[in-house]
Amino acid sequence: MLHGPNPYRRMLMPDAVAEVEFHRPLAAGEVTSWRSLAAHRLLGTFYEADTVLLPEQGLADLRADFDLFYSEELRRLREASISDLERFAYSFLATEVDITGAWTIDALDAYFQHAATVSEQGESAALTAIAQARRPEVAADTYLVQLALDGLTEASAMSKNLGGAYGPEQSALFKIFIDEFGYGVYESKHTTIFAKMLRSRAMATHVHAYWNFYLAGPLATNNYYYYLSRDHAKFFRYAGAVTYAERVFAPGFVKMIKTYQAVFGDDIDLHYCAEHAHIDEHHGRITREQVLLALAERHGASVVPELIRGIAEAELFGRWFEDDTAAQIRWSDAIDRYRERGAAALSGGGEPRRVELTPVSPFGTRSHDGAMILVLTEGEADLVTSATGEPDRLGRGDAVLVPAGRTYGVRAISPRCGYDLHPTTAE
Ligand SMILES: [Fe+2]
Ligand SMILES: [Fe+2]
Predict the structure, then answer these.
(1) CA of 155 to the centre of ligand 1 (A)
(2) Res 185 pLDDT > 70
(3) Which ligand is nearest to the CA of 246?
(4) Alpha-carbon span 251 to 281, nearest angstrom
(5) Percent of the chain, pLDDT > 70?
(6) C-alpha 208: how far from its chain's center?
(7) Which residues of 293-312 are buried (b: 16+ CB within 10 A; e: fewer)?
(8) What is the pLDDT of residue 102?
(9) Are 285 and 395 found together in one domain?
(10) Do 268 and 217 share a structural domain?
(11) Which pLDDT does position 217 carry in this prediction?
(12) CA dist 333 to 94, 138, 167, 311, Å?
């Protein structure tokens, strides 16, 4: 179920990707859909192919994969399609976030402070779901998995904004960047201490071990920062977004520490959270004063709407990250209830889609754009809905309701196994 320590190979579920109509861009309401998950898996891989990924254990067995991942052929493929894929994934933002009218620097600051306060005083949907879960440990791990998406390659998108010449604001951003990198001390690098937190939960620490368990909302959020960083026409949006992110991290991690201590007591290493609760106080201040407001002062009114757009979009993605994770936690935590709902909602209907598996079928996960009832028609299988929880065993005739956007994998237990997928209007 986990990916091995090979950063070059990721399960994309090619058959299921083929269902996606890429000519119709995503709408705002589709961020947690299968279309979104499929596109963001690709997009994230494209972005990361522009960073240096080397496995901890050395390249010995992976030289050929390294060569292929960074090959000219794949680079040309990427370059030819990445802008279209970005348009597919993010063009809805232009209409979803409406920044019209004249904005002063004071209005920018007021907007920013308001957004930060709303986040600080609001509750985290994912942390609430963890606290209410029947199996809070599994739920807490699900959230760690989403954080690992960025945690194990932290500040990679930021690194793309460090080149060039843009005055004191460049140095301010660089100051934050070197903090993320532990001032050049590997043991203090945020990624290193994130891995420590995973290890304390006996979880894997190599990059994208949990690839199959990243959700669409968190993927779209992580990719958003790459999207803004790859194209410097979007630099001011990036500045707004990163200011918002750095500002809300500190209070967010204070809440996370409370929830995780309640779940695990002292059995988890929360150094990563404590470090961010502390240093992002600082980063939030630096980005506001020395990046956001300083850029507005220096470059004038024309950049202010873009700075605001970045703040507003970062806020939106932050919410999708939380809501998607919370929805997955709740579903995965209550599969018994969704078995009942699936069985109750099952009635004739249209032609179901048939899927067949054997124990050697490669494992992958997916979601659907609409709700489905999964019915096991042959053999025995495990339904996998979390990275660390016990899978739910399905026997012949068992049904489960899979709400729109919920991510799952099926692993065959018997030599042959098959299931049907029935579209449903049940929720
Ligand atoms: Fe950090
Ligand atoms: Fe930071």
Answers:
(1) 7
(2) yes
(3) 2
(4) 8
(5) 100
(6) 11
(7) bbbbeeeeeebbbbbbbbbb
(8) 84
(9) no
(10) yes
(11) 98
(12) 36, 8, 50, 33
**Closest C-alpha among 156, 147, 174 to residue 227:** 156
Residues 301 and 371 grouped into a single domain: no
* Ligand with the closest atom to the CA of 281: 2
Question: Structural domain tally of the chain?
Answer: 2
CATH code, domain with 277: 1.20.910.10
Burial of 321 (0-12, 13-18, 19+ CB in 10 A): buried
| 3-class DSSP assignment, residue 422 | strand
Whether residues 292 and 216 fall in one domain? yes
Domain boundary among the residues 332, 349, 381 is at: 332
| Ligand located closest to 283 CA | 2
Query: Which of 289, 311, 332 is a domain's end point?
Result: 332
CA 200 to chain CA centroid, Å, is 22
Is 62:6 a contact under the CB 8 Å cutoff?
yes
Residues with CB under 5 A from ligand 2 (ion): 246, 280, 283
Same domain, 325 and 345: no
Residue 285: pLDDT band with limits 50, 70, 90: very high
C-alpha of residue 175 to centroid of ligand 1, in Å: 12
Residues 161 and 270 grouped into a single domain: yes
Which numbered ligand comes closest to the C-alpha of 154?
A: 1
pLDDT tens digit string along 333-380? 999 999 999 999 988 667 899 999 999 999 999 999 999 999 999 999
Are both 169 and 313 inside the same structural domain? yes
43 falls within a domain = no
The residue range of the domain holding 169 is: 99-332
Q: Are residues 322 and 355 in the same domain?
A: no
Residue 168: CB atoms within 10 Å: 12
- What pLDDT does residue 349 have? 67
Summarize pLDDT for 92-109 with one digit per residue, the tens. 999 999 998 889 999 999
* Cβ neighbours for 30, distance < 8 A, ≥ 6 positions apart: 36, 369
For the CA of 275, the nearest ligand: 1
Would you give the DSSP letter of residue 26? Answer: P
Give the separation between CA 201 and CA 147, rounded to whole angstroms.
14
Separation of CA 234 and ligand 2 centre (Å): 20
CA of 314 to the centre of ligand 1 (A): 16
- pLDDT value for 330: 98
